[in-house]
What we know:
The protein has helices at residues 34-51, 74-89, 121-133, 149-152, 169-175, 178-202; strands at residues 13-18, 28-29, 32-33, 55-58, 93-100, 111-114, 144-145, 158-165. With 203 residues, it is of the alpha/beta class. The chain has one domain (13-202): Zn-dependent exopeptidases (Aminopeptidase, 3-Layer(aba) Sandwich), CATH 3.40.630.40.
Amino acid sequence: MLSPAVIAPEQLHIVLDAGHGGLDNGACVGCVSEAVLNLQIVKVLEQELINHGCAVSLTRVDSESLNSPYARNKKVDDMAKRREKIRNLAPDLVISIHQNTFPSSSVSGLQCFYANETAGSQDYATAIQKQFNDSGLPFDKNAKPTDFNLVEHSPCPAVLIECGFLTNPQECKLLQTPEYQQILAYHIATAVIREHSRQNATT
Ligand SMILES: [Zn+2]
C-alpha cells in the first residue's frame, strides 16, 4: 500500500459519487460497465481518503441507483436524490467518478471537470489534473468546465473525474486492475488534501 503523503485535517469531509447505477450502466464497452467500474474506484478512493484522515460519505453505496422504482423519470429522480443527499451531508467537496469514451480508440487519459458557478471547484479540478500530469503517467489534459447536473448544482465545490477511456483497450484494461485503481486513488487523495490545505491557508 502507498503510504499517505499528507494527512488531512479531521474536519475535511468528502462525498464520493459513483456515476450511474441501477438500470443506468453508463458507458458500456465490450463487457465492461462504467457503473461497475465507477463504484470499484470509489470504494478504493474511499479507503485511501480515510487512510489520509478524511471523513468520507458515498452517494451510491452499491450497484443500485437512488431513484424510487416508481419514479416516472428514473434518471432525473436519481440525480435529484443524489443532490438532496449531498445537501444534507454538507461536505467540503464532492468528487463524482466516471469513465470516458471516444470514437477513436487511440484517445486516453484522465481528465477533471468542474462547475464554473461553485467557488473552489476549478481550483480542486486543476490541482487534481496537475497532480496526474506531473505524476509520470502519460496525461496532459487540462481541467475543463462542465454543465453536468450533479456538479453544476452542487452547494459545495464539486469535481467530476473521467478516470480514463473505456474505448482505449490498454487503458480500459488498466482501469480494471486493483493496482491502477490504487494509483488513481492515491493521486486524487493527495491532490485534494493539499488543495484543501492551500485554500484554508489563504482564506
Ligand atoms: Zn459517466
